[in-house]
Recover the amino acids of this structure.
């Protein structure tokens, strides 16, 4: 019997499960969009609500997403500003809160990945003389000469090769016209 006949889709996920996943994903995306667009104003009433939750009053208009970024604010608080959020499943509410709370961390991680990728792309020319570089410790020179990394990315993963040493390598590559 074929997998499709058993109710499995591509990648061996049951079609029913995939549809549930798609619905949840759509609900999360829609809610993220709603809280990004919905704005509250610095009124006395809104200030009292925020103070009651242990948060600070607004000085200017803010989106519900900006409010949710505050550590003392949780998704269930947003229902005070939009009753429609009460109809969302607990799973969707939790996922939206997680995505908003960790958004900054996620962005930093993605930027760090991009930086590491750029280091991978910077290759040392064949026969690059690590021992002649000024500013590197003897230990780092010995490790680089012994291991002979192909790229700055590989060099950055060598134990004892510090970020400062990577900077020195980059400056030398630029000076020598390799960057």
């Amino acid at each position: 019997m074929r997998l499709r006949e058993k109710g499995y889709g591509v990648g061996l996920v049951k079609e029913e499960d995939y549809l549930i996943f798609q619905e949840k994903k759509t609900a999360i995306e829609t809610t993220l969009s709603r809280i990004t667009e919905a704005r509250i104003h610095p009124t006395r009433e809104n200030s009292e609500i925020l103070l009651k939750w242990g948060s600070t009053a607004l000085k200017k208009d803010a989106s519900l997403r900006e409010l949710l970024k505050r550590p003392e604010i949780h998704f269930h608080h947003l229902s005070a500003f939009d009753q429609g959020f009460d109809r969302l499943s607990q799973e969707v509410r939790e996922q939206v809160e997680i995505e908003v709370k960790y958004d900054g961390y996620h962005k930093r991680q993605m930027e760090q990945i991009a930086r590491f990728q750029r280091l991978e792309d910077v290759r040392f020319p064949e026969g690059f003389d690590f021992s002649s570089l000024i500013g590197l410790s003897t230990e780092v020179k010995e490790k680089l000469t012994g291991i002979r990394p192909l790229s700055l990315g590989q060099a950055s993963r060598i134990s004892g090769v510090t970020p400062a040493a990577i900077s020195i390598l980059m400056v030398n590559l630029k000076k020598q016209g390799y960057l």
About this structure: The chain has a mean pLDDT of 91. The beta strands are 39-40, 62-63. The two ends are 58 Å apart (CA to CA). Helices lie at 15-37, 44-52, 64-69, 90-101, 103-121, 138-147, 152-156, 163-175.
